[in-house]
Automatic annotation (TrEMBL):
3-phosphoshikimate binds at K20, S21, R25, S165, Q167, D313, K340. It comes from Flexistipes sinusarabici (strain ATCC 49648 / DSM 4947 / MAS 10). The keyword Cytoplasm applies. This is 3-phosphoshikimate 1-carboxyvinyltransferase. NCBIfam families: aroA. It comes from the Bacteria. The gene is aroA.
Length: 429
């Protein structure tokens, strides 16, 4: 059990860790392009290290310098067929994107993951890749890891999104970029577009018109230099903290501000919250800048529809804000939360109810009423899920000494989370 002393305020400035999604893609695109690419300021967390180790198994030569990784690769026509399984650990992004990268290779690969990942659906990538000719087999009718990706002749195709998922879109685009001919992917709801940005940066002929992404595949990718901005999803815990701890003032520096990721800022605005954004770079690649926020009232409200895909990883932090809002916070159309590292809807319902809040659970979300009085006997559970653990740490520090069963899993996306919080802590008024 882990407990934390009560903290009054969080004040000062921080730099959040580098973006997890961009780091995964930087490592994978560097493997796909023949020659030497560089990924500077990569995130080194459990998830991204799973991708990096897969890159090495597949023939990428990685030279790790302080802040810049050099990756030399024979390119996507010449991947090594590893003699062992590729372990994607806890990382859905690794498993799903790599399936797309490997399906057109004409070689044999086996992918697996940890106990959590082995329960998460993989048919969402197996199905569209199979429509493009891939031959991929897995447990439970090709739904679950381990997956065997076997030699197949793939062809270009027009795929329509069946799930609102950037991982599925990316798996299809990464495969399509290797297959001769014109493929397209049509989204019903926009999802994070890091793969589109980076594929273009590596020389892929990719265009986006409205909700249709078109790839003319089969050409060589050119090596490139990727600079990873701060992770907006990690910054969400600090944006929420500023609103949970009285008299707080936090400046978050150099965080990614790609509009397909920053829906939380729109949600906060709709809850009546004010903050400042200083956009520093929006020219090419990924935009980034600084965000500053102070303690203030949170009105609360309902979020649903298209915004959900944009804020999917921020929902644990948004749900926790429901405890401190003037009126309930209701989150709907978020059934995807049930297939993350844990079932995040039931994890949040369990913890917020244990604190004494009135919480309604729906198949596709939850509604949290403002907390009237906290149950100091509450025990918080992390369900081996990094984002649930980070919310629990904030709640334990906010109310003081509430026990949490485990917090080790924060290393999946934010290994230095505690140290970053501690830098900002003010214990007295
Ligand atoms: O593409 C990505 O990097 C990610 C996409 C999202 O998953 P889905 O595509 O399953 O929504 C997100 O939850 C995950 O943390 C990272
Ligand atoms: C869902 C997440 O990641 P992944 O799907 O890559 O495991 C996350 O980081 O919240």
């Amino acid at each position: 059990m882990k407990r934390f002393e009560k903290i009054r305020s969080l004040r000062g400035e921080i730099t959040v860790p580098p973006d997890k999604s961009v780091t995964h893609r930087g490592f994978l695109l560097s493997l796909m392009a023949e020659g030497v690419s560089y990924v500077s300021n990569p995130l080194l967390s459990r998830d991204t290290l799973s991708t990096l180790s897969a890159v090495e198994m597949l023939g990428g030569e990685v030279t790790k310098n302080a802040d810049c990784f050099k990756i030399k690769s024979p390119g996507f026509r010449c991947f090594k067929e590893p003699s062992d399984i590729i372990d994607c650990g806890n990382s859905g992004t690794t498993a799903r994107l790599i399936t797309g990268v490997l399906a057109p290779q004409g070689k044999f690969f086996v992918l697996t993951g940890d106990d959590s990942l082995k329960k998460r659906p993989m048919d969402r990538v197996v199905d569209p890749l199979s429509w493009m000719g891939a031959k991929i087999y897995g447990r439970e009718d090709n739904r679950l890891l381990p997956l065997a990706v076997t030699p197949a002749r793939m062809f270009s195709a027009d795929i329509k999104a069946a799930v609102k998922s950037a991982q599925v879109k990316s798996a299809v685009l990464l495969a399509a970029s290797q297959i001769d001919g014109k493929s397209s992917y049509t989204e019903t709801t926009p999802t994070r577009n890091h793969s589109e940005i980076m594929l273009r940066q590596f020389g892929c002929d990719l265009t986006v018109k409205n909700n249709i992404i078109t790839v003319h595949g089969g050409g060589k990718l050119s090596p490139s230099k990727v600079r990873v901005p701060g992770d907006f999803s990690s910054s969400a815990f600090f944006l929420a903290a500023a609103l949970m701890f009285e008299n707080s003032e936090i400046l978050i520096r150099n965080v990614g501000l790609n509009a397909t990721r920053t829906g939380l800022l729109d949600v906060l605005k709709s809850f009546g919250v004010k903050f400042d954004v200083d956009l520093k770079n929006s020219e090419d690649g990924e935009p980034f800048g600084d965000i500053s926020i102070k303690s203030q009232n949170v009105q609360g409200g309902k979020i649903s529809g298209d915004i959900i895909a944009n804020v999917i990883d921020e929902i644990p932090a948004i749900a926790a804000l429901g405890l401190f809002a003037d009126k309930p916070v209701e989150i709907r159309d978020a059934g995807e939360l049930r297939v993350k590292e844990s079932d995040r809807i039931s994890a949040l319902v369990c913890n917020l109810r244990s604190l004494g809040a009135e919480v309604q659970e729906f198949d596709d979300g939850l509604k949290i009423s403002p907390l009237e009085s906290v149950n100091m006997k509450a025990e918080l559970k992390s369900f081996d899920d990094h984002r649930i653990a980070m919310v629990n740490i904030l709640l334990s520090k906010r109310f003081g000494n509430l026990p949490i069963d485990d917090i080790a899993c924060v290393d999946v996306s934010f290994p230095e989370f505690l140290q970053n919080i501690e830098k900002l802590e003010v214990t007295s008024c």
